Amino acid sequence: MDDLSQRDIVDQLNSFDFVPELKITKDTVVAYSGVPGAFAEMALVSFFGEDVNKLPVASFREVMESLVNGDAEYGVLPIENSSAGNVESNYDLLSEYDLTIVGEQIIEVNQAFMVYPGAKLSDIKTVYSHPQGLMQCSKFLEEHDWHLVSKSNTARSAKKVKDDGDITQAAIASSRSAKLYGLEILEPIANNNHNNATRFIVLSKASVIAKSANKIAVAFGLPHKSGALYRILGDIYHHSLNMTMIESRPIPGKQWEYYFYVEFIGSLSDENVKNALKNIDNDSIDLRVLGNYLTK
Fold first, then answer.
1. Number of other residues whose CB lies within 10 A of the CB of residue 8
2. Which of 45, 171, 257, 292 lies 20 to 30 Å (CA to CA) from residue 187?
3. How confident is the model over 88-136, as pLDDT tens digits?
4. Of 194, 224, 254, which marks where a domain is finished?
5. What's the whole-model pTM score?
């Protein structure tokens, strides 16, 4: 965790600036990992609309760096998929960077199986996609003897099939990718779960909270004491807060020590929430408020 985690919880709460709404104009720059057609781009458009400036970068870390360096005002990161689970590397990035979660966007994810125009299933030898895309479509893929290759992004996988012009290659990506790169869809919904969705978070370097924000995310470590996590959960329960997620991640460089990420419904303007956080601060190590944000 960074230096922010060492700050008193009252100082952290006072550092946030409540604003009527997030500042979004036609000049706003929003970073995402991938290329046009990526699910992250779809989440970006759903949250911000089409008129903002989209900044595609090569990795999730580069999304964070673009915010730190001032190349973008906002960044979009996937955090959880309803079929494949949490994107654990991005929880680690939240610990590493001093950025604020200012929004959340959930989008339906239908993974399509696409090929170079004219290719048939019998032609395919290699399938490209992001590891999450491959996991989400495991049942469909297991029906065939194909070589599976992980790429950094589903849309980049589609672009590779288009650029290579090889009928033995296929990609798993969004139908938007197929349209953008002129590929032919052989299986419109290849994912195991037809109610597949991915949750994205919107990040900013500015510590702002839109007044309509309705969810809070925090991260903290725990002392090696019996019942440490139980006391934290008790702090949440006794203040009648609705916890929506809890995730643990190893602390880099420390064996068998973990940070916990917790989300719950509420506003940092609520005295009950502030009191709960003060109790959690007393019962944890290095409590950090990651943001209070609007869910869509």
1. 11
2. 45
3. 889 999 999 999 999 999 999 899 999 999 999 999 999 999 998 999 9
4. 194
5. 0.86
